[in-house]
Each structure stands twice: as C-alpha cells, then as structure tokens.
Here is the input.
Amino acid sequence: MDLQPKFRTFHQTINLGRYDAEATLREKRDRVLSTLRQNCKYKFEPFNQGSYEMGTGIKPVAGDYDIDVGIVINLDEPARFNPVTIKGYVHEAVIGHTKNVRWKEPCITVQYQQGGEPVYHVDLAVYGKDKSGRLHLARGKENAGPEARSWELADPKGLTSTIGSRWADEDAAQFRRVVQYLKRWKDVHFSPQGNAAPVGIALTVLANKHFSPSKSGFPVKYDELAATRNVVSGILGGFQDQITATGRAPRLVAQAPVAPHTDTLAGMTNQQMTELKSRVDKLKGWLDEAARTGSTAPLRQVSQLAL
Here is the structure.
C-alpha cells in the first residue's frame, strides 16, 4: 500500500495553516504589540521567531496556539543594564492586556482565554541589541538575583535562516513536514509539564541534522515515510552513554547551529533521557512496521489519528 497519500492527509490535519489559526495568531500578536508600543518605556523593533516563522507550527492537541515574537531594544552595551529590569518594562507595559500575563524565565507570555480555557498565547522574548548589532536575550524570572539573571548572546534570526537552508522548494517543504510529524508525536506521547518532553526546537535541530530528501522517479514522487524513518534512525543512533553527576545514562545532544550553540536538550534529566530513548526506539518500530506491512495501524500509534 502506498502510504504517501496518508502522510499528506496527516499533514493537512496537523498543519497550522496560513489562513485560519495563523490569521488569528497574527491578530493577537498585533494587538499585543500595539499595547506594548503605547506603554513601553523603550522603543523597540519586533520580529517573528520560532516555529511560526520557520513554517513548522502544528495545531496543538490541547488547543493552545502560540506565536513567538522577538522584542529588540537598542542598548548599545546590554551588560550595563539589569536584564530583569529591561524585561520588567515589557512586562509592565502589557499587564492588563489580558487577564493572564505571565513572567517566565526566557520570556513574557500574554495568554488569551475563552470560557476560562487557554486558546492562544503570545511569547515575547526581550533582546538587547549591542553596538555591533548582536542580540542578547534577557533571561531571568521576576525579582531574580544576580546569579539567576543574564544576558545570553543569541541569534534567533540566524537560527531561522539556517534551519533547513540546505534544501529548497519541495525538498524544504518535505523537511518542514517531517518536523511537524515529530512535533505531533511529541505532543501525543509526552507530558507538556516540565522538561519531560523534548522541546520543539530540539526536534527541529535534530531533524535538520539527520534529514535528507526522500524522493524518486520522474515526475518526482516524495516518500514521507522513508524521510521520517531516516531522521528517527539518526536520532536514535545519536544517543551515547555518558557518566554524569547523577550516574550513567544514554544522552542525546541537540546543539543549536547558531549562537549561543547551546544543547537544547540539556535541561532533561538522565531519567527523562532514558525515557526519551525508549520512546524514540518505539517510534522507530512503528515506522518500520508501517514500511514492512504497508498498514496505517502503526501510524495511528504515532499520531492518535485515523489515517
């Protein structure tokens, strides 16, 4: 059985889309930015970042759509300023825009609710721009002391332009779809609380490392199952036993390809890493069975969708 049509149906089901949910997200973003422009002490330049800008966003299982927005403030020398103070100006400017505005360590989140349930949120990441044009992310919770706050060198625009840049046109589109399949698997099989789940950017970084277009024939026919299996096999092969302060465990590194080149999976404990490896192995088994049998039943295990 040719499973490619099933994968494309799967994609249509989970893809965020450019006209419905994304249009609403843009409207929410623009409203937040309007409030920020009216109330913020500093002038700023906004830009879209994250999965929205990369085109790898998916419809959330729980219904809470999000968009990430960078807020760039010219500071010349960010190190001369307290990052929590600068972040506080943004927080203060949007307080009251909705009933739920949360201060998080890496960003300020403006939550929209409907019937008491979260439906959309806008994450505002605050950056200080130095004289050289480099961006520094303001990190720290509200009232964080010197040891718990920092300016972190970052290149969010470079990350967006680098991820998937090796491919063009339909090859790039297949890459984005594979990332979206992995994100749906993550949303279904991991708790959204804490660090139990691999963050979306980690899956994107790993896919960027292991993806190669799977296609054949003329006219060209794409094979989504093969492309996804290749990425998952690469991820599984990337686990290496390491000895850490809490013991030996298989660990996987997903290093960002741009500054600050952090390991986007570093926050996971050894136990969480062990569970991640087990679930990646199970995912590979489902994909291998689908390839062997031509059945969609294993794919329902991946996505909890009837394909």
User: Anything to note?
Assistant: The mean pLDDT is 93. The two ends are 13 Å apart (CA to CA). The longest helix spans residues 270-293. Residues 163-303 form one domain.
